[in-house]
Amino acid sequence: MTAVSSIWTAQSGYSFGTFPEGIIFSQALPVSGDTGVAYQVISGKLPGGLFVKRNPITNIAEISGTPYEVVRDTTYTFCIRASLNGSISDRTFSITIQNTDGPTFIYPSGRLPLGPNNQLFVASLDYVDFQVEVNDPNISAGANLTYAILENGGELPPGLMLTNTGRIVGFVQPTLVISLTDGSGTYDEGLYDAVAYDFALVPTNGYDSYFYDNVFYDYSLPSKNPKQLNTNYQFKITVSDGNVSASRTYSIFVVGDSYFQADNTQLDDSSTVITADTSFVLAPVWLTPANLGLHRANNYLTIPLNTYDRELVTFNSEAVNADIIVTSQKIDSGDNLLGGTTVGVFTTNGVPSAGQYFTLDNRIGGVTSRVYKIISVQSYDGNLYRLTIDQSLEITIPQDLVFIVGGLADDLSRIGLSYDSGDSILYGQVPYQPAVTQTYTFTISATRLGFNQETAFTARKFTIQIIGDVESVIKWTTPNDLGIINSGYISNLFVEASTTIPNAAVVYNLSSGNLPPGLSMDLSGEIIGKVKQFGRTVFAGGNPTIFDHNTTSFDTATTIFGGSTSITALPSGNGSPTLFDHGAATFDHRLTIFDRLYQPGETSFYDIVNHTKKYMTFDSKTSTFDQVFTFTVTARDQFGYSATSKTFKIRVVPLDTTSYSNIRVQPYLSSVQRNSFSEFINNNTVFTPNNIYRPADPNFGIQKTLSMIIYAGIETTAAGAYIGAMGLNHKRKQFYFGDIKTAIAYNPGTTDALYEVVYVQMIDPLEYNGSYLPHEIKDQRSQTEILSADNSIIDQSLTVFNQSITVDGQAYQISNPRANNYFPSSVSIWRDRISAIGATERDYLPLWMRSIQPGTKQELNFQLAIPLCFCKVGTSASIVLNIKNYLATTDFDFKNINYTVDRYIIDSIKDLAGDKYLVFRNDRITL
H or E element: which one contains 403? Predict the structure, then answer.
């Protein structure tokens, strides 16, 4: 039988080449004589849209399909396995997919339509909010567009800015203002460059109608000088999708606000830019947001409704909500006439519909507050519509009158509110209402009056929510006793309350008392951290000790607390001095003698100042200190409408008198790998926030550091003990990423699921299928170099490996002059070496590793794994699906991350809390 490896006609590393996205792709595999051979991609991934299959017509194995859109030029590397009758052969290939699409601007080059009616100009002090739009197919592939005006790309008018999302926003600031000292703007009249250019115009009001030489040259009435010069600002906007960029030149024509007044002698009907619907009167701009928020019934409200500029602005409460803004247009001769029932309008921000309303009140004089209902709508080209209404018009509507169309506004007087149009303030006392939330909408119009009765107006539709007074309360769902937590354990405790306010969150604050040391409370009510463990303190036998805030007890020791130094002497004065409460405690600066313990927790002392015998009781006669922690938490809804407090207690119990530490590893990635992982782990579409368990707790939530536990619950001791354990079988090591898995954590001794975890199984290349090498391997081959004190190999070890051979080293033996013993570096051996340091407390292992998983009969036990996130029960499967979709549609791959570690991170050593680094040796006898 021919070996399957002989079918390949190309070696690993073969590239199929570079191809544009979206192309119909078909490339034969580099094979020959492959009858009956099956192919499968076993690692890496093909470009999205491509598949390995055999052509049913030609019977040729090929890669075919249509590659998906890519954000940027991307090279895909993958391994294909050929299989035939149990024989396999692998080859690695690559294909590069080229991004060919770039962003395309929708608006042509030239002046942007920024005016109120899409005019190609904008007046001084106008408010601009304009989105520069582009088309880009790469957006669907995950690209983000970024807009900018690059260096030497021109400038926007003062007051405007371009956001990185392509919005031009701001108030246009007046520029090139002309003063009286600037004269008439003729050549050489003013100082050079005093204004941007000579602004005078040649008068044309009649001088050329006189007989030759009858009047002096340029005889005429002088033209009126402008107050501001019109200015054209040109700039180039560049937009990039991260791979391809495009640029387009635009301009904004800024016109002085006095340019549109009737006495302007510079503007005539030949203008191709200034249109007839232009006004020098600027429409007011609203500052108050449309959503006025949630307010409680049976309260007094005062809410200002403000615009940016209130000069010559009047405010009115409208009977109809501003759903659509329309402009009257006569479509037929019978439209818009007194007594008629058809109204022609033009609109660009919506389509009028039957059942909507409009009123002419506040928009034109000589009318009442009559409200017209639309019966039917007829559509015409050019955004024109004919409205048939339910009653006759009481006035002829002039051409180009702007008014609003929409639903009926709510009557705010029904909830006790009034609108002061003079100061534009909504005020009143909202009466009692049942425990429901009511939403009210209303519209306020702001109209600016210019000269000659010319006006400009804007209307805003406001929303306000009123919640009922009854049942707007918070109720605690957590009992007073939060239970027991072992010292040194990670907390998953929490307090919880519910509110009857719809869609409201509850926030929590520690208002009094103290949590166990090492724990803190988040605004979500989660109690975060782990209880600090210092060991049990007993005053007995004359041993000095530190009195801390942990589980501390007293027995029959005679102890002297004296003076402001807080020094404690032990029985009969022959004990060593002991620091009481970190040197901070004093007992009224008096010498106090504790003579003996009468009852558990009760003692007497002799006060030499007052010459009396007194008694003192500690911790309700339990003979211990700081075991029960009592604290009060205040819960309030996010709006601050109601709050309630409750007192809780936590009891801290040490497992024994020994402290324990946890040891983990973590890679130090390149910036490229770090950014790639950061984009993945911070993607909210992958790790859905609502599904995350304890998102604010660094011990749970989303894990962003690629940290991997190696040993949990080893006895805390001096750093030297750990370094000694690392003397053998430890060396810089690379791990590999395996499959994505899930597990469930159950409350110990119950079937109550607490959380789920999504993790990546890690692979130690020296532990194939769960087996590992012995701690020591003897090389039986002959060695040519012998170790001795004067041998050059020692010098080599100093220079090449930066590691000296010392008398306390365990790797080199004086009885064996040749270095022929080698020490494999694998995780199981690491754990064996660490376990020899001291006692192990298994309960420090993460809870999910100590839980029996569904379908099994024993605990999961230690796993070489990197948790990605801790999630709520029942949500891990959806997160895993999100991860797979992300991996399939992006170029992120765990296998591209170099997970190499060269040190332990230990969370505490003797007398020192907090993370410490323990760096591996780098010698040649460790494999």
Answer: strand 402-406
